[in-house]
Amino acid sequence: MEHDIPMREAVSSFQPSDEWKLEQGLAGVELHLLDQTRGKEVNGDSLGLNGDASPITGKLDGKLAVDELPGWDGYVEWEDYPDKKRRAHEILSSQTFPPPPEFQLAPIPGTNPVLEGIRWKLWHRAVGGRLTAVPEESWAVVLKEKSLEMLHLLQFPYNGEPPKRLVTAQPITPNPLHFVRNHGGIPSIDPSAWFLRLDGLVKEPKKLTLSDLQDESKFPRMERIVTIQCSGTRRIEQISLYAGEGDEMINAPWAEGAIGTARYVGVSLKKVIKYCGGLHDAAKHLELAGADTYFKMNEVMNYVISVPYSKVKAHEVMLVWEMNGEPLPKIHGAPLRAVVLGYIGARSVKWLYRITAIPEPTRAPVQSREYLYFNQQVGKHNQKWIDGIQIQEMPVSSAIMSPWNKQVVVHEGQIEIKGWAYSGGGHWPERVEVSADGGFSWYAVPIENMSTKHKFAWRIWHTWLPCDIEGWIEVVVRCWDNSLNTQPTEPRNTWNWGLHVTSSAHRIKIYSVNKAKERTRARLEEFERRGMSFVPITRPTEFPYMTWEEYDEYFKRNGPRDVDE
Fold it and tell me: Are β-strands 326-327 and 180-181 bridged in parallel, bridged antiparallel, or unpaired?
């Protein structure tokens, strides 16, 4: 045996120790480019995947990014100052920043926060001035206002969701557990100093204070239970199937908790527009601007999106200052945010300070270049912005919150399943169905096990799923809304380059252990009697499964394994 040692060492030096991982796709981020048009393999940029940024050189312009107004701490105005935006672009273009961290072709870090947002922090530091301290100030708000239970997907800009066991614990999501999907820092704006600008194709442009909006003699109070859902909800399923675009903020690895439901109080934007004399005929969209600073391709701007005026006229855009009976938290957009009913969360602008009536949808990147739903053959090799559908209304979707994927479940012929169901655009879940056989046979969730229906909110549900099968099974959920829309059957059907809107039927694999079966019950009792854990399921059983007497008796009764004739 000793003579084998040198030979083994030689083989080891010939084949890299990580080659098996590479050829099996277990380290996809390190794979070289295979260019068959050149007849050779081309090495990719595998060095510096988590590369350091070059030092910030040159004298920083401390006056470029300054607080725009007293009492508006952390709000830097960019849209009114083209020259300032140009200067910020020059600063960013002169620096070298690291690429995004890899979390699709490499393992997702097991830390909390999962990702730090180093690039975003460095961009703020490079522009300097007031933006330098924004990442640290924002994180302090997170620690103050959000639950210690939160999963921090991205430290800055902050992206976080509650753990699955708490997502559907209540029909109304407590403020500290409501998911957060921020695109920049968190301003701290004094409500008494805040005002809202309405301009553009508004007949009577105005500035309205919070007191003005809260004056019920001017604006009737509006209260709604509303579900807000990120278009990245359940993105982890698309990532686990095929990698897509990988910006750590835009394409953060969300799970099933990027959805939350709250009771909001405010006013209808339609009433505010009416108070301003209405709009000129050419106005077809309303551009909403937030006080946070946003970065895109070395450009700096405020966070801006637009919604169609038809949506506003239907009283489906709220301006809110209260969330679940409390003043709107800073992290959720205080003093005032928009809540666009039935649309993706990206349209519900936080720290809202300006509304501009415009003839066409805004060209701001969050509207025109991001949140696009591409055909599956569109990707890094050929994408154009016009290839993607701008995502507005959320389609019907659902998710299983319990059990968890790959969990071992001991039961007695029925498995308790819990989850949520939602449909955007003013639709609502009418029926939720679950399956224990991968989607061949479906059982409807009893209506009494579903929360109250609302036009713009989810329904949480629970049920007992009949299951006689043991071993690995695939549990699936799907939802039917009031217009009989339902979900695609497989994640592949919804995969897209931007990894948005995972609306396929949610599937989990669990290991079913049916304690109602005599042999299974006896085996579980044996594990318990020996003080041995049944999980992980992969760990070999360290005691005999049967006696030799039982073994011999079986073959004596049933004949040998093999026969001669």
Answer: unpaired
